[in-house]
Write a structure and sequence with these properties.
About 45% of the residues lie in helices and about 20% in strands. It contains eight helices and 13 strands. The two termini are about 25 Å apart.
Length: about 270
């Protein structure tokens, strides 16, 4: 399957042109007109690559890049810049951007830069998977040979209800044979809600605690709504989970569940994936 690409440009013509070029190459393409819209997409979906215009009204490309590094650190970023903003492009490269293209860029140049970024993203993902597989193999060998005598460092485990457990460090929820993983942002949100269980948190406070930046009263609910919706769908797979995150109309959200308990014991063995 071809990579998923997010195109961010406030100029309608340029944005549509980029989308068409990439779709013709077989990529799955989503577009955004503003930096705020781009961040919402990054919170809702996983992208391999983002083409990002530096100069945009409101939130500019540098701010989008800064926040994207926290939301989706594995997403490669290619900057779209005019001649007058080359210094800004250099600063963005220092912040981790993969490449930059001078506008207007030729289709071949766009396709080539995107292909290189996608290949690098795939190589990085393959290396991460290989390291995880090797570490898992080493742990299995040590267990079989009786070489591992020291207990692993405990992780923060929370019991949400009878037999429903959450590992906050690993962002995993399990109930008997059912095991669900959370994205980093979903894990942050659930951790904040659990740490403040039975306390109503405003939309703005939640965005600040989870995403790390301040928003307006009207913008914060729009940022949170898709994130809370995804998290609720995952929690609803567990007994009682559909009622744990409750909406307080016009204010924010509160986490409520029956007889919560918390321990510092290591997570029980879950077996295979």
């Amino acid at each position: 399957m071809k990579a998923k690409v997010l195109v961010v440009d406030d100029e309608k013509t340029a944005r549509k042109s980029l989308v068409e070029i990439l779709r013709l190459e077989g990529y799955q393409v989503t577009s955004a007109e503003t930096g705020e819209e781009a961040l919402r997409h990054l919170n809702e979906e996983t992208f391999d690559l983002m083409l990002l215009d530096i100069r945009m009204p409101g939130m500019d490309g540098l701010e989008v890049l800064r926040q994207a590094n926290g939301i989706a650190p594995d997403c490669k970023v290619i900057l779209l810049t005019a001649h007058g903003s080359l210094e800004t492009a250099i600063e963005a490269l220092r912040q981790g951007a993969h490449d930059y293209l001078l506008k207007p860029a030729a289709p071949d140049e766009i396709i080539g830069s995107v292909a290189r970024a996608v290949d690098e993203h795939s190589d990085t993902a393959r290396r991460h998977r290989l390291i995880e597989q090797l570490e898992a193999s080493i742990r299995q060998l040590k267990n079989v040979e009786g070489l591992e005598r020291v207990m692993p460092a405990p992780s923060l485990a929370v019991t949400l209800s009878q037999e429903v457990n959450l590992d906050l460090d690993r962002r995993e929820i399990w109930f008997r044979d059912l095991r669900v993983s959370l994205t980093p942002t979903e894990g942050k949100l659930l951790k904040v809600l659990i740490e403040n269980r039975s306390k109503v948190l405003s939309h703005r406070d939640l965005v600040l605690l989870v995403q790390g930046y301040k928003t307006s009263e009207w913008e914060a609910p729009e940022i949170l709504r898709p994130l809370v919706s995804r998290l609720r769908r995952k929690l609803a797979r567990f007994p009682g989970g559909e009622d744990w995150i409750q909406n307080v109309r016009g204010t924010g959200y509160v986490f409520e569940e029956t007889e919560p308990s918390q321990s510092r014991n290591p997570r029980p063995s879950l077996g295979g994936d």
